[in-house]
């Protein structure tokens, strides 16, 4: 284990303040604190509600203030609707572009596959036609050879 180096010998030792124990609250004081708390919580809640109601009602105290507040609400609503409309239009354009890209990609892939199938089909047809011609020629040659080998009957 590492040990700490001690401070120089000229430093003074630190003195600690003596802790004075606080006496435990008496039962009377505890009861008084509980009673105060029981009263303070509802009173604080009422004051909080009062402040909130005042904040809500204050803009509508006079006719001009209420009209101004309603106008402000209308402007906020129009701004929110415009923002929502812009986001919707942007999302629609993005989705349309993505759909167009996907469609082009699928069509391109389909054309590629169709060309591959057509090329393979043409190659196979040519190969089959050659094989059939060869088989016909082979059979014709065999028949000709057989005919030539037959004794002539006249």
Task: Give a description of the structure.
The protein is an all-alpha fold and 154 residues long. The chain has a domain at 28-61. It is 77% helix and 0% strand. The chain has helices at 27-57, 63-149. The model has no long low-confidence stretch (mean pLDDT 84).
Number of strands: 0
Radius of gyration: 51 Å
Q: What class do helices, strands and sheet pairing give?
A: mainly alpha
The topology string of helices and strands comes to: HH
Give a topology summary.
Elements: H1 27-57, H2 63-149
List its salient traits.
77% helix, 154 residues
Please provide a brief summary of the model.
77% of the residues lie in helices and 0% in strands. It is an all-alpha fold.
């Amino acid at each position: 284990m590492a040990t700490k180096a001690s401070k120089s010998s000229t430093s003074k030792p630190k003195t600690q303040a003596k802790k004075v124990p606080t006496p435990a609250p008496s039962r009377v004081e505890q009861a008084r604190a509980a009673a105060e708390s029981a009263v303070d919580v509802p009173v604080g809640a009422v004051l909080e509600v009062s402040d909130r109601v005042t904040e809500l009602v204050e803009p509508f105290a006079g006719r001009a203030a209420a009209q101004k507040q309603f106008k402000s609400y209308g402007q906020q609503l129009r701004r929110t609707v415009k923002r929502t409309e812009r986001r919707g239009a942007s999302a629609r354009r993005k989705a349309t572009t993505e759909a167009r890209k996907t469609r082009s990609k699928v069509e391109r892939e389909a054309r590629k596959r169709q060309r591959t199938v057509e090329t393979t089909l043409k190659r196979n047809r040519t190969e089959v036609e050659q094989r059939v011609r060869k088989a016909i020629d082979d059979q014709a040659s065999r028949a000709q050879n057989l005919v030539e080998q037959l004794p002539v009957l006249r």
